[in-house]
Amino acid sequence: MRTLLLSAIVSGLFVFQSSVVVAQQTNTAGANAARYGIGVVDVSYIFKNYDKFKTAMEGIKSEVEAAEGKLKADRESVQSKEQMRGQYKPGSPEFKQLDEEIARLKAEFNLTAGRVRNEFLERESTVYYQTYLEVSQAVTYFAQQHNIGVVLRFNGDRVDPNLRQDVLRAINKPLVYQNNIDITPDVLALLSRGEAGAIAPTANAAPPKRR
Fold first, then answer.
1. Of 3.30.1700.10, 3.30.910.20, 3.40.50.2000, 3.30.43.10, which CATH number belongs to 35-198?
2. Which residues, 6+ apart, have CB-to-CB distance to 39 below 8 Å?
3. Which residues contact 85 (CB under 8 A, 6 or more apart)?
4. How many degrees, rounded to 5, is the angle at CA 179 between CA 177 and CA 184?
5. Any idea what DSSP says for residue 202?
6. What pLDDT, in 10s, does the model give residues 113-144?
7. pTM above 0.90, yes or no
């Protein structure tokens, strides 16, 4: 019985250790990062694939669509009153009264539309900034855990030679070559797991205001 138990424990340890090794070697693209003490990270890729960020942006998008529906209804209301103006003779009291009302409604509409737009832009900016803080924290955490001294940003998107924008991006890319030091999948995994070291230092941080 003791022999069977010991065998089970050893087997369990072997399986656990094997899983750790597999987890560490999953990202073959970054296999040399710790060896060279330098890594690269594709921040754009992380933003496109980080579920928390995508969920937040989809929520804002849904609210924007709802707000646009309300603004559309207000705009149509103003347009209907503009059509009614043709029923009155220019210069008549009714015409002047309706004209003043239309001017007031237009001014209110423009103010509301501008306020709504600015509110959503600020919220979107805050989500981007908070995510940037999380990415930065995750990169720092991973680099410290693997003795990486420098992490450079790069763009791993493939270049389409038929698209001028892609070609120009490739030409102006600061990073020319990297030998399996891409830690992007590792950083994204840290963020997705929500580990302590990958949480942004300030949960409600807001981007600095421009002067």
1. 3.30.910.20
2. 30, 33, 142, 143, 148, 150, 151, 152, 181, 182, 183
3. 95, 98, 99, 102
4. 95
5. -
6. 999 999 999 999 999 999 999 999 999 999 99
7. no
